[in-house]
Design the sequence.
């Protein structure tokens, strides 16, 4: 997905000439390593590697020494590479998302492009997540919920399989008991389950823990025939999952922890913020 991002150069004041990737083919440092090694402008932004001659931009490179003939040939290649580059005097550089006509990133365009890369059977198996993309919660929360439901969250167990963390460091930080896989972290963990139970208690409902996160999602969000009620349960599902993940990250990366009552309260507050009503108002 990182290939969907590109730099659109304006005045060249926000992009490093040699080090950043702003041309097809990679960074100029990698395309012309010899010239980079003798440049006096390493770390300089594009706007410092030339000047405006009226309305025309002219490149002006500075070298640590006089270039050899074969290096001058490389310089000619560099100028040829830059021939079609047009700086814009009064516009800042910006990052462009190429999968959107306006160049603006959105979770919808991200997921649409991601699904292009999925196998047909994957698309079918993930079709139950289509209700996530309703704009009921912030885009980053929508995206995270989709990752959680499709098994793409970087839990400790997943990171250990990828060789990112030690295989012995896979225990859930919320309960210090089970292996941190998605189902355990968001559902089976005794800490997380207390959050779910609190919501059910306030809602006056009783029910047993489904076998998978997918089944839990479907049971939680499809339990009512009322469209408005389904919307409320969807937002509550997102608020719970999101706050469990935030608490997990706080414990790992900041060595801080909050009690389950605080997480329950925060999920209530997120619900009210996102939907504009109290979770259990009439």
Sequence:
């Amino acid at each position: 997905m990182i290939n969907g991002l590109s730099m659109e150069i304006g005045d060249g004041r926000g992009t490093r000439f040699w080090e950043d990737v702003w041309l097809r083919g990679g960074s100029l440092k990698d395309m012309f390593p010899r010239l980079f090694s003798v440049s006096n402008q390493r770390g300089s932004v594009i706007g410092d590697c030339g000047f405006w001659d009226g309305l025309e931009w002219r490149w002006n490179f500075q070298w640590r020494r006089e270039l050899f003939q074969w290096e001058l040939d490389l310089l000619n290649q560099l100028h040829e590479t830059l021939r079609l580059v047009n700086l814009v005097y009064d516009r800042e550089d910006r990052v462009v998302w190429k999968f959107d006509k306006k160049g603006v990133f959105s979770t919808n365009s991200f997921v649409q492009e991601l699904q292009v890369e999925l196998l047909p059977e994957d698309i079918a198996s993930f079709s139950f997540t289509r209700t996530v993309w309703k704009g009921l919660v912030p885009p980053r929360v929508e995206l995270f919920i989709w990752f959680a439901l499709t098994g793409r969250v970087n839990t400790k167990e997943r990171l250990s399989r990828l060789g990112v963390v030690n295989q012995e460091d896979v225990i859930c930080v919320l309960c210090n008991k089970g292996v941190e896989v998605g189902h355990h972290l968001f559902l089976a963990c005794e800490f997380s389950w207390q959050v779910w139970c609190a919501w059910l208690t306030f809602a006056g409902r009783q029910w047993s823990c489904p076998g998978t996160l997918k089944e839990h999602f479907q049971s939680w969000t499809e339990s009512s025939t009322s469209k408005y009620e389904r919307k409320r349960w969807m937002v509550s599902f997102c608020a719970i999952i999101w706050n469990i993940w935030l608490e997990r990250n706080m414990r790992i990366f900041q060595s801080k922890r909050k009690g389950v009552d605080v997480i329950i309260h925060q999920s209530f507050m997120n619900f009210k913020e996102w939907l504009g009503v109290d979770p259990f108002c009439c």
Notes: Residues 120-275 form one domain. The longest helix spans residues 227-253. The chain is about 45% helix and 5% strand. The beta strands are 5-8, 50-53, 56-59, 94-97.
